[in-house]
Amino acid sequence: MSGNVTINEGRTAILLLFIRVMLAGSILFLHSPIGQLMSLWQASQIISPGAFPDSVLLQNAAVPMVFFIGAVMLTIGFKTRFTAVALLLLLAFASVLNLLLIGSPGSALDWLPRIAFILGLLVPAKFGAGRWSIDGLMEPRLAPRAVQ
């Protein structure tokens, strides 16, 4: 082999789209931020019916909101590298914090999905979103500005 490798951009774009959608779907369904937000809203209505949720409940809703918004941004491919790094850091920090608070690593079944998400998020963090994304649509428009 001469070392010249041709990359099929169509297959790469499909693979990156598949990885983004699978990661975002896993975040939405396995971490279930929507269910957490709904249970926080129900708790706020029990504590103070008809009023805006108090600050403690809003602070507890911050992490599920970040996961939900990050999963949507990852799915559509908007600011993909930033989103993947932010979700990666949040998930790693939450996992380490969980380990420190609980004191035991728990079973391997608890940690395998977390490690898989962290390793999976390295792909969009490294390679971006690909051609079939909002970032891919915006890239040709931003290229002439970079030359100037």
Structural descriptors:
7 helices, 0% strand, single chain, 148 residues, globular, mainly alpha
The percent range for helix content is over 70%
Number of helices: 7
Radius of gyration: 19 Å
Oligomer: single chain
Our estimate of the beta-strand percent is: under 5%
Number of strands: 0
What's the number of structural domains? 1
Low-confidence runs (pLDDT<50, min 5 residues)?
none
Distance between the termini: 38 Å
Shape: globular
Largest sheet: none
Topology:
Blueprint: H1 9-30, H2 33-47, H3 55-60, H4 62-76, H5 80-102, H6 108-127, H7 134-147
Give structural notes.
The protein is mostly helical and 148 residues long. It has one domain. The protein has helices at residues 9-30, 33-47, 55-60, 62-76, 80-102, 108-127, 134-147. The longest helix is centred in the middle third of the chain and has 23 residues, at 80-102. The protein is globular and about 55 Å long. It starts with 8 loop residues before the first helix and ends with a helix. The mean pLDDT is 76.
Please outline what is shown here.
By secondary structure, the chain is mostly helical.
